[in-house]
Amino acid sequence: MKHGVAFRKFSRTSSHRNLMLRNLVTSLFEHEQIKTTLPKARDAARLAEKIITLGKKGHNAAQARASSFLLKPSILTKLFSTFAQRYADRPGGYTRIHKFGNRQGDNAPHAILELVDNPRDLKWEMTARAVGRELLKDKVNSDSSEAVVDAGLGRVVNLLRAEKGLEPEEKGLLRPMTRWNLQKVLQFRGPRDVVEMSKKARVYADDLMATPMAHQTMHEEVKAKYPHTPQPRRLAGHKRLAETRPALVIAQGALGPGASPPTKGKKKRVYVLENALTQSF
Amino acid sequence: MASLALTQTQALLPTLRSSLRTWLAPAFGSAVLGWPGISRTLPSLGSLLELFPSIVLAVPKKKTSHSRKAMRSANKGLKDKQNITNCAGCGGVKLAHHICPNCYSSITRQWKAKLREEGLPGLS
Question: What ipTM does this complex have?
Fold first, then answer.
């Protein structure tokens, strides 16, 4: 029976383990984002939350306890000023773990542990990308291809503000999961960050349109030198804009169910746009 | 030669066993080790008896044929991954509930480029 054995041992003596976890937490506070194995990230996150709570309390006893835990004195000032201010309104949940596949070398499950709302917030970046892609997809469905290529996304701040206020059951432009991520990411941030997010989404949408064109240009340069160069293949399972089939089916290609996707109505125009950019590559 | 001696003793064993017991009892019970005839024959018979253990180990009776081995391992192969999804940001394939490695690499490259522009030390 596993009673009263709550946490991991990491095959270390308690002194070794505690020092390792203190070191991890100190590194997390120093860099605000660290990469380690998933079990270590989970245990370090738990301790980091406790230390940030101490930072928010800010009294003498909290300072003494934090200074006895952290290994670098310079981190203490950061904890009691930056983090205490940043997480003043947040009721816990100051850390975030992203799974990151398995580590090269020993195949250990790898994870990225980060502080929420840090300057290099991965979830913030990923949400901006998802928002940019989905708004571009919508734009392409509604406008002509030339207009989209000329103007890009345009102003989307008001759109994001509207999405921020939507309830889960209401229907908006974004996918439910993307909207949920957007709301979570913006929840404890100021109004200026919505503008920042919209800017990022717009830049990323331009990126999305420019990438196939850049690839095509590179291909043409190579082809000018070596005329028999074949068109580069699209990556297996890659989802183009307005593709509705899941990744596994896309990866199966011509063998997958629904191999020739129905090309009627608005969907067709999306394929035409992508093909116009890449000449069917 | 050894095998010949073995078969001979094997045939003799039933008859030898009873007499051996009568020989062994005085040999171990008392100190009659000085008798030349017995001291020469006794160790050889004892070591020969050890060659026939009462327990026989379990061993395969027949060699496993290629077909049988193939049939046994027919369901031992790797299973197909089903937790493959598309990244919401780039549309590439990634593992479900994991961060997209493609997006992660491009995002970190942007951060590093920005740090380099500012002349700051790179990301660790």
Answer: 0.88
